[in-house]
Structure formats: C-alpha cells, structure tokens
Amino acid sequence: MFSREQWYEYLNEPSQRSLIAWLINLVIAAAIFFNMVEVLLVSVENEANSAHYSGIHVHAIFTLIFVADYLMRIWVAAEAPQEHGNSALNRRLNYVFSPMGVIDLLSFLPGLMLILVPDSAAQDFSFLKVMTTVRILKLTRYSASLSILAAVYRENFSTLFAAMIIMIIISFTAATGVYIFERVAQPEAFGSIPRSMWWALVTLTTVGYGDVVPITLGGKLFGAVVMIAGVGIAAIPAGVFASSFVRLIRDHDRKRRVSRHKRVLSKEMKESLKSIDLNGLEKQEVEYLMHEYGLTLEQAINVVDHYRS
What we know:
- The chain is mostly helical.
- About 75% of the residues lie in helices and about 0% in strands.
- Helix 3 (about 50-75) runs antiparallel to helix 4 (about 90-95), helix 8 crosses helix 12 and helix 13 (about 280-295) packs across helix 14 (about 295-309).
C-alpha cells in the first residue's frame, strides 16, 4: 500500500508525473464538471420534486466522491511539508480551517443535506442543489492559472479593500449630488439618496445600463464628472492587479524552469554518484546538500569526505 506521504503528494501536487495522481485529479475534475452540467439541467426542470427524483442517484455519487476527497485530505494533512513544527492534529486543523479546507467542506455538505431531505420536502430545499456549485472553486487546486489568480487577490487584498472604501465614499457623494439635481424632475428614480445609489454605482463602475439617467442640465453636468471619476477609480485596482498577475506568471514560469532543471541535474547526479566510492547513506547526504544548499557535486562530496575523515 502507498504511504500517507505518497497520498499527500498525489492529492496536493497535481503537477507531479504520476499516473495515480493524474487519475485522482481527473476523477475530481470530471466530477466537478459533470456536477455543473447536472445543476444546469436541473435548473430547467419545472418541478423541484421531479428533479429530486431524477437526479438523486447521480447526485449521491458526486457527493460521495467529494466526501471521500475531504476525508482523505484531512488524513494526509499531517504530512504538510511547510508545517513540520506542528503536531499532526494541528496540521489537520490548519487544513480544515484553511480557505481550501472550507471550500472542500462546502463542496459536499449541501449535497449531503439534500440527500437526507425527505422527498416530500425536496421543493423547500431545492436551493441546496444550486449551493453545490461551490465545487467549481476546487478547480483552483488543479489549475495553475486559477491558483495564480487567487494569489493575486490575496496579495492585493489591502488595495482591493482601500478601493472598496473609496468607492463607497464616492458612491454616496455621487448619489447625494444627483439626488439634489434630479429629485424634482424624476422622483420615481431619484426621489431619495438610496434610490440614487443604483445610478451612482452603475456610473462609477462604467457599466452604464441606461435604465435611469439624469435629464436636467445640472444633473447631466454632474453625471459627466462622476463618469470621469469612475474611469480613474476603476483603473487603479485594475492596473495593480494586472501588474501583479504578470509578475506572478513570470515567477511561476521561473519556478517551473528551475524545477525542470533540478530534475535534470538530479538525474545526472545519480548517474555520477554510481561511479563514486560512497556508501548509500553518504550518497543520500550528497544529494541532500546539493538540493538544500545548492552545492555542486564536487563541493557536496568534499563536505561528506571532510566529516567522514
């Protein structure tokens, strides 16, 4: 049987060249895809009960797959290499309460509840079927591009939060201004500041639905100022995210090249070690020194020879 460390690599390192890891990732990704198709098909059903009857078996299979995936990840979390200082229990708790751990939990919890719901109450709990779409977030684990995108948002959270605060302040200011100019001419659209908030948000985000527009001269002039301000507000976080995304893409490509180079060097190193008079333990020490400290083969052998003598 495979060790827990091997299962950790299979589940958490999808890029590694292993048939078992590839098959596991394929099953999970296929289950996510077909679950999305199932939700789409169920959403066009006229009766929630009929959807419950027709899709319950397929839905149960998907749910069991994600339950098994979650339990396996809790089990192998004790092998997390970045948490060697923690106990096995703490490593598992860190996974359970991590963002991906919460996503893994929510990927099957609504589905499990839906299975346990009696058929007579299926219509009242049909929203649980739609909630299973959270499973699509699991794809960030299997896609480097999605992982990089998530990293961009984590890295720029403070910028995003600051932009949101500025947007709230300017939206309130814009809604107040257009309310002053348009409240008499269009009381149904701008009769209060909360009603005017819709126009302010649509204009500041440069969406421009056009369902409500100012008609007075003052309102139009004020609206033009808000539009110009909206372009600047939208451009700031977009520029920050774009530069961060490009940088992370380059870092990812560099790490892939370094990893590929290390694999080539490791293969060459093992071939070279075969012709060197070292025992098995000393060869392992040479490999460790080269990987961990970036020593050349000759330098690593000299270090081992120094301590051997």
